[in-house]
Specification:
This protein is mainly beta. It is built from five helices and 43 strands. Helix 3 runs antiparallel to helix 4. It is rod-shaped, with a radius of gyration of 34 Å.
Amino acid sequence: MNLKYTPLLFSRPNFLIAFLFVSASVNAQLTLAGGTIRISDGASIVCNGSVTNTSGTIINDGKLETHGSFINHGTYNSTANGDSLLLTDTGTVQLSTGSSFVNNLLVNKTNGGSVTLAGITTVKNKFDFIAGRFSTDPLTAYEFTAPASATFSFAAGTEIVGKVRRTAWINETSVMFNQPNMKLTTHGGTAPTAILVSMIPNGNPSATEREVSRSFSVNATGGTGNTADITFPYKNTELNSNTENNLIPWFYSSNEWVAKMTGNTITATSDFITTTGIDIANLNKEWKLADPKYTFNVTTLLKGAWNGSAMSTSLNAAGLLPLAQPYNTAPYNYTGTESVTAIPNANIVDWVLLELRKPASGLPADATPSTIVGRKAAFLTKTGSIVDLDGATPAWFNIIKQGASFVVVRHRNHLSVMSNAVSLNTDGTIANDFSLLDKSYKDASAPGNPMVLLPGGTKYGLWAGDVNKDGVVSVTDVNAVKLAIANSSVGYQPSDVDLSNSITVTDVNLTKLTIASSGSTSSAARQAEVIVKSNVPQ
């Protein structure tokens, strides 16, 4: 039997429609303002317009299918908990179950059709998303809610945009949220009562940095002593400048993005990342995906090795450069394993240690070694480029925090130098030319410049002569060079201040010249200073 109705407005109390194993088709809007509609087990109503229950009662033990919106402000229930609500056909529609819930919801909006929540919507047993677009309207507080035990099924390419809350949470159970690859599992402790996930495809995470264009936030209600595993999905169209296989999760804490560097597995063939072992303190954060690899286009010159137009490569030519990074002792204490089987080319001058520091305050004076967010030993070429182990491409390393930071270059017998604040960017590159004086940070209390003007031009270089690596050049360093000469020291030595493969009076004079040229404004001031100190916070 096929029943067709013109526009219907039910307002009489106790109006009852009971369809038992029949099909009813309503070619209009169906509005219930009082009264009751009952759909019996095995029966169905198909409404070609919208269904709006303003103050009545819908008892659905069968199927209610609408091509338009479904808005419930009245009572909706099922005596057998076997009801199904189907949003089908085309067009843009709204959905709200109000204070009630539906047991089974199916969305199949074809030809670009979409569903947007117009209020809190709760599904108890099963949700099937076959086609269309589905949004909870993220700018509102509306949520799509279902117990953790409810079954979610998504056709390929479908996902919910916005807020999905899973209630009656259970530990040790993988629970699906906005799409098949947006899943969360908790372990240990006391289970939360509910977890809310907000996912915005093509979204903009807080603070413009390097990122995939998709934002996430997690909010667990209750629970203590938990850890969580999360699977984060993405699309290739959202990658921006990020290299897919390098992606890791980041969480936003105290106004900065912090990388979760461990426990990550990327499944690039299916476009998702799984991360494990998130502690409860970091679970309830905003999350995103990004590549932690940053490339550093940094130029630095050494006063000691400077010959008027470039830097000396004498140590390289003599075969004295070590094949493994030399900064694994105090004061650097760098544990990196950078090494090569051979020095890559004849242009290499020496190893340098490249660092990125990010103090929470954002102030350069606070950029101490404890604020290092990434570092690497790299090669310095004769023209001042800091290059990676291949001897040609710019140095790179992974960073663990994003945001305005300071680049530091350290060398084994020159004073370190630090940049002014550099802003990170969306393409993962950082540039600083230390041959320009205004590109280096100057401590306001320092008597001299952080770098020295090199002979023969307008370029600046690092101060030479920090032989004992204590961050100052003083008579102690002069004496160390003299002792090396007395002991006939040879080889790769910090006392070889000019990097010439020969420790001579030239190295003594270079160190003395640093002290004499401290940058103080008068001869008396220089004599009183008797040292030149690095401007890099220690």
